[in-house]
Amino acid sequence: MKLRLPRPRLPRPGLARARTVSVRKRRVTVSLLAVLTVLAVAGTTLLVFAARRAEAIDDARSDAVAQARLRVAQVLSYGADTIDADIERAQQSTAGSFAQYYVPFARQAIAPAVKQEGTTSVAIVSRAAAVSVNPDSVVVVVFIDQKTSSKAQPDPRSTSSTARVTMTKVAGQWLISELTPTSS
Question: Does the keyword Membrane apply (predicted)?
Answer without folding.
Answer: yes
